[in-house]
Amino acid sequence: MSDGEGPITARSLMKTDFRTIESDRPLREAMELLLDFGDQRPPLPVVVMHADGSFAGLITPRALFKGLLRKLRPEEVAALPEPDLLAAMDGQLDLPVAEAMVRDMPRAYLDDRLITLMKINCEHRQEFTPVLEDDRVLGIIYLTDIFHAAASLAITHDAEGIELPPDEDEGLSH
Fold first, then answer.
1. Is residue 55 part of a domain?
2. Cα angle vertex 150, ends 144, 151, to 5°?
3. Can you give the CATH number for the domain in which 25 is found?
4. Number of independent structural domains in the chain
5. pLDDT in tens, the chain (174 residues)
6. pTM of the complete model
7. Helix residue spans in 15-142 (DSSP H)
């Protein structure tokens, strides 16, 4: 984070280790990247780039599901037997990532402060936010990192931390 030297910004919170895929690659490749997340829970998003390297969007497990099921109405998904559902998804993995990626999402910039990042994530309900400079992704900020930074500020608001009021009934236990 900021180690007490200046404000907490996107630059100090972002993770620079992320995966990328070009927007014209098939969903099958994006799925392979999403499946190869090791011990990370939830799976890391994959940054989608245009051929020129500029930011196009993100592919997430939810976006991939929507891409696979795009030919079906929600009520059909629940009613179809599994073999028919798999048949309806046949060929969808060959679609380009651009057909399923999340395009409309908040973006952060290197010098965005913690309060801006908190506001962005409250308004858009994303688990992660890409950090851009000149339309290039430099990193990803996870909601949990924003939460930890905000919580650590709240806990260490002053040198003595937050003083909790004494329990009204000290005899009660949880």
1. yes
2. 85
3. 3.10.580.10
4. 1
5. 545 567 899 999 999 988 999 999 999 999 999 888 666 656 678 999 999 999 999 998 889 988 888 888 878 878 888 888 888 787 888 999 999 999 988 899 999 999 999 999 888 877 889 999 999 999 999 999 999 999 888 776 554 544 445 555 444 443
6. 0.77
7. 27-35, 61-68, 74-79, 82-89, 114-124
